[in-house]
């Protein structure tokens, strides 16, 4: 790919991620609508799906919190990533945010000014910088970029903390369900997709959570994912917290290598009704 | 499909009297928009007496907890500290409907009731709301950018009454 082709491909991927439900997600909503017994919850689910159809048609934001771009780069055995390629990826993200358009919510100023927001807002949608790029290997001979747009609500309710497993997987699942019940109830933008990473450090657990979102699918759920989803749905939180059968659409979980210890580090992100807002693009 | 109650601004006490938790409503007319940054400033204007000298008339009004940006509008969590803590003084100053998302605390539910105001939950459907928004005016605090205090003219924004007359939909 030429530099311009990389920029254009990333730009289009940002717009897709911010405006479009993938097919497996649309199908998950259709199943939820068919199975929902609470009329108000059913109305909310139908309205969210109608919103997705309108956003896809207009290529406009699914949500006014268009999100912070999070980037996962997969690199094949014979592929090379250069500093220039990363620069072009960032250029593409900026162009995509302007095209979407993303919400101009980048904060300016020095360290203190960015914390207390006294540095003011950057009026440019492209003033929202992407998070640091996460890189992993793939067996495929490609460079593939996953772009995920992370909203603020799930960030408020997400949690990364230690769990004493007591040599029982069930103990860890019980803790995840407890965290999820609290987080989903407070989020307000359910039904959620729960993203879970289990690792050896807070960094690793968070990065596994991001990878879970890139790899997860609503069509195929593991036994642990199915159990978490089922148990949180039994809480009757429902869409927007208004009660009903559909608090969670699915769980995407990734378990990394673990250390010989009584502790697992778990990262849980209660992704909102639009997340994961994701697009994937090959750059080779 | 249950009946949808049409609400037009400014909202009277009689309209609020009839609203119940769980009612599905459409909101039309002029509404204000503010969130974490703007609402405490409006409250300060109420407290120091400058609001009544301004162009902002809160009597019978709706405040939508949202930013206003090129990306559109959509509810932020109403239980964020600076938003929820503003609901009491804003209700005392005449706001009749607070529009947002997420569970609010029992103390806030009680305060709304004391001031004959309600809280409504709106789905975060930015693409659909965009098609129902007809005017947009920056009213105060332009330095806050997307978090400034705006006024919109809207048609049939969909919502569900989440708290009214001392009851909350989250309590059931």
Features:
heterodimer, A: 284 residues, alpha+beta, 4-stranded mixed β-sheet, 21% strand, B: 172 residues, alpha/beta, fumarase, 5-stranded mixed β-barrel, 6 helices, 24% helix, globular
3D architecture notes:
- The complex is a heterodimer of chains A (284) and B (172).
- With 284 residues, chain A is α+β, with helices and mostly antiparallel strands.
- Chain A has one domain.
- Chain A is built from nine helices and ten strands.
- In chain A, helix 1 crosses helix 4.
- The longest helix of chain A is centred in the first third of the chain and has 20 residues.
- The termini of chain A are close together.
- The model of chain A has no long low-confidence stretch (mean pLDDT 97).
- Chain B has 172 residues and is an alpha/beta fold.
- Chain B has one domain: fumarase.
- Chain B has six helices and eight strands.
- In chain B, strand 7 and strand 8 form a beta hairpin.
- The radius of gyration of chain B is 15 Å and the shape is globular.
- Chain B starts with a strand and ends with a strand.
- The model of chain B has no long low-confidence stretch (mean pLDDT 96).
- Classes of the chains: A alpha+beta (284), B alpha/beta (172).
- At the A-B interface, helix 3, helix 6 and helix 7 of A face helix 6 and strand 7 of B.
Low-confidence stretches of chain B: none
Helix content of chain A: 40-55%
- Approximate strand percentage of chain B: 25-35%
The gross shape of chain A turns out to be globular
Number of helices of chain B: 6
Major beta-sheet overview of chain B? 5 strands, mixed, barrel
Secondary structural class of chain A: alpha+beta
Radius of gyration of chain A: 19 Å
Number of strands of chain A: 10
Q: What's the oligomerization state?
A: heterodimer
Just give the CATH class of chain B. Alpha Beta
* CATH superfamily descriptor of chain B: Fe-S hydro-lyase, tartrate dehydratase beta-type, catalytic domain
Uncertain spans of chain A, ≥5 residues at pLDDT below 50?
none
Read across the widest sheet of chain B, the strand sequence of neighbours is 2-3-4-5-7
Largest interface summary: A-B, 45 and 43 residues
Count of individual beta strands of chain B: 8
Cα-to-Cα separation, first versus last residue of chain B = 21 Å
Please state how the strands of the largest beta sheet of chain A are arranged side by side. Answer: 4-1-5-10
General shape of chain B: globular
Question: Count of DSSP helices of chain A?
Answer: 9
On the 0-100 scale, what is the average pLDDT of chain A? Answer: 97
């Amino acid at each position: 790919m030429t530099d311009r082709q990389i920029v254009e491909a990333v730009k289009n991927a940002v717009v897709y991620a911010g405006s479009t439900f993938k097919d497996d997600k649309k199908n998950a909503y259709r199943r939820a609508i068919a199975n929902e017994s609470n009329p108000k919850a059913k109305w909310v689910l139908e309205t969210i799906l109608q919103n997705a159809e309108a956003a896809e048609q207009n290529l406009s934001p699914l949500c006014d919190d268009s999100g912070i771009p999070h980037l996962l780069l997969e690199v094949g055995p014979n592929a090379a990533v250069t500093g220039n390629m990363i620069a072009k990826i960032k250029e593409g993200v900026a162009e995509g945010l302007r095209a979407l358009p993303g919400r101009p919510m980048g904060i300016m100023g020095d360290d203190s000014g960015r914390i207390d927001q006294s540095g003011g807002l950057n009026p440019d949608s492209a003033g929202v910088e992407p998070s640091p790029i996460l890189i992993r290997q793939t067996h495929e001979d490609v460079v593939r970029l996953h772009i995920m747009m992370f909203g603020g609500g799930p960030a408020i309710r997400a949690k990364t903390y230690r769990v004493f497993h007591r040599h029982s997987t069930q103990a860890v699942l019980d803790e995840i369900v407890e965290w999820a019940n609290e987080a989903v109830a407070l989020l307000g933008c359910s039904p959620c997709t729960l993203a879970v990473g289990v690792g050896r450090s807070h960094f690793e657990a968070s990065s596994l959570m991001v990878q879970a979102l890139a790899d997860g699918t609503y069509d195929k759920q593991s036994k642990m994912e199915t159990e978490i989803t089922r148990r949180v749905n039994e809480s009757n939180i429902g869409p927007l917290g208004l009660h009903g059968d559909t608090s969670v659409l699915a769980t995407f979980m990734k378990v990394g290598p673990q250390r010989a210890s009584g502790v697992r580090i778990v990262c849980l992100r209660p992704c909102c009704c639009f997340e994961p807002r994701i697009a994937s693009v090959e750059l080779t | 499909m249950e009946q949808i109650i049409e609400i037009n601004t400014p909202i009277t006490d009689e309209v609020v009297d009839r609203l119940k938790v769980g009612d599905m409503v459409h909101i039309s007319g002029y509404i204000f928009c503010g969130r974490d940054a703007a609402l405490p400033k409006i409250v300060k204007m109420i407290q120091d007496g400058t609001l009544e000298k301004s162009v902002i008339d809160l009597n019978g009004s709706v405040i939508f907890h949202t930013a206003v940006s090129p990306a559109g509008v959509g509810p932020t969590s109403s239980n964020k500290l600076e938003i929820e803590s503003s609901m009491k003084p804003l209700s005392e100053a005449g706001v009749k409907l607070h529009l947002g998302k997420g569970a609010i605390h029992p103390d806030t539910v009680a305060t709304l009731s004391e001031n004959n105001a309600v809280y409504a939950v709106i789905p975060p459907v930015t693409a659909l709301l965009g098609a129902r928004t007809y005017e947009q005016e920056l009213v105060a605090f332009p330095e806050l950018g997307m978090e400034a205090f705006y006024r919109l003219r809207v048609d049939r924004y969909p919502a569900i009454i989440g708290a009214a007359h001392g009851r909350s939909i989250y309590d059931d």
